[in-house]
Design a protein that fits this description.
2 domains; Nucleotidyltransferase, domain 5; single chain; globular; 18% strand; 364 residues; 10 helices; alpha/beta; binds 5'-O-[(R)-(carboxyoxy)(hydroxy)phosphoryl]adenosine; binds zinc ion
Length: 364
């Protein structure tokens, strides 16, 4: 079972090939950062147009790298939502057209399920049940993963997603787009003792999040300073610490509530080192194990879509329909469970590749 995975939900064009026997065979990503940087955020129309330009060359590239012909692809998996409708439509149309031309089935994959399964792709020891913290540009969710494909939403942000808050605060601090990595870099120069920002919604019970008040707090604090580089670095540090603490407090609460002893974090924000470190501490305190993807699989990528597609294909969920269906919103809990045939064990992503290498390279 060899799956071609296509990701075009936002501003990254990701393509990968995952083999149920050998693991990840090839993956490539084209980031549109340079296109959107001048606008300080993603311009949906430009994103769609660029996915059109980049997708077919990237597909050719991964096929070449994996030394495969189109005939050897068993199914095409693509991100069908949630995301920007125009961008999703590009991936969905190309995926369904290729599947039709190659006479293979196609599979509509949920973007957040891709993120959620990414730690499993790299860790053969990780199997459900576990707790998942999903933190991206559009989502902040705590999910109980009861079994493969069986998800219970425990809590989510009632306003801004955590990645969105990082991007907006970065914008206030005069950092470019995308804001998250730039803010993390600036926070390294910040003094952690100067400001203390609130940990929103941690004083009341429940597992929901809210980050928009924290954003206002940043704005008011910034207005009271001279706006020097050191002021901005101190604010970035205080904001990042507040977010990391808030996420850790809620994860700890969710572990206690569910009695689970494994937790994963995934999505773009899980690339943040302070957040990873705070979650690690929390997991240790709760006698739980933390799994996070390697940095290249935290942010959007085609490998997670190919992997999710492979699991769903093994469960017999391919479709030969020609309908191109995409969804801007799509609750994770409505997905069908993934029931794998007895004895199916997938290899880890690094079965074929050295994941430490920035440019994926075949192991000899
Ligand atoms: O998962 P992702 O690549 O795309 C979505 O599905 O949204 O997440 C992108 C988000 C952006 O808001 C970006 O600023 C944030 O993840 N991000 C980070 C870091 N790297 C990416 N936030 C904080 N620290 C980082 N190192
Ligand atoms: Zn994402």
């Amino acid at each position: 079972m060899i799956i071609l995975g296509i990701e075009t939900s936002c501003d990254e064009t990701g393509v990968a090939i995952y083999d149920a026997r050998q693991g990840l065979l090839a993956h490539h990503l084209y980031s549109q950062v340079a296109i959107h940087a001048d606008f300080g955020g993603i311009v949906p129309e430009l994103a769609s147009r660029d996915h059109i330009r980049k997708l077919l060359p990237l597909i050719r590239q991964v096929l070449n790298e994996a030394t495969l012909s189109a005939r050897q692809i068993s199914a095409v998996a693509y991100t069908a939502g949630p995301g920007l409708i125009g961008a999703l439509l590009v991936g969905a149309s190309i995926a369904r057209s290729l599947a039709w031309a190659w006479q293979t089935p196609a599979m509509a994959i949920h973007h957040m399920e891709g993120h959620l399964l990414a730690p499993m792709m790299e860790n053969p020891d990780l199997t459900p049940p576990f707790l998942a913290l999903l933190v991206s540009g559009g989502h902040t969710q705590l999910v109980e993963v009861q079994a493969l494909g069986q998800y219970r939403l425990l809590g989510e942000s009632i306003d801004d997603a955590v990645g969105e808050a990082f991007d907006k605060v970065a914008n206030m601090l005069g950092l470019g787009y995308p804001g998250g990595p730039a803010l993390e870099k600036l926070a390294k120069k910040g003094n952690s003792q100067r400001f203390h920002f609130p940990r929103p919604m941690t004083n009341r019970p429940g597992l929901d999040f809210s980050f928009s008040g924290l954003k206002t707090y940043v704005m008011n604090t910034l207005a009271k300073t001279n706006g020097s580089e050191q002021d901005k670095a101190d604010i970035a540090r205080a904001f990042q610490d507040a977010v990391a603490d808030t996420l850790a407090i809620k994860c700890r609460r969710a572990l206690q509530l569910t009695g689970l002893n494994r937790i994963i974090a995934a999505g773009g924000v899980s690339a943040n080192q302070t957040i990873r470190w705070r979650l690690k501490q929390t997991a240790l305190k709760e006698n739980a194990e933390l799994f996070v993807p390697s940095l290249q699989f935290c942010t959007d990528n085609g490998a997670m879509i190919a992997y999710a597609g492979c699991l769903r294909a093994l469960a017999g969920q391919q479709s030969s329909s020609l309908e191109i269906e995409v969804r801007a919103r799509w609750p994770l809990e409505t997905l069908p469970p993934i029931t794998l045939p007895c004895g199916v064990l997938l290899p880890p992503a690094n079965g074929g590749y050295c994941l430490d290498d920035a440019k994926t390279k075949k192991r000899t």
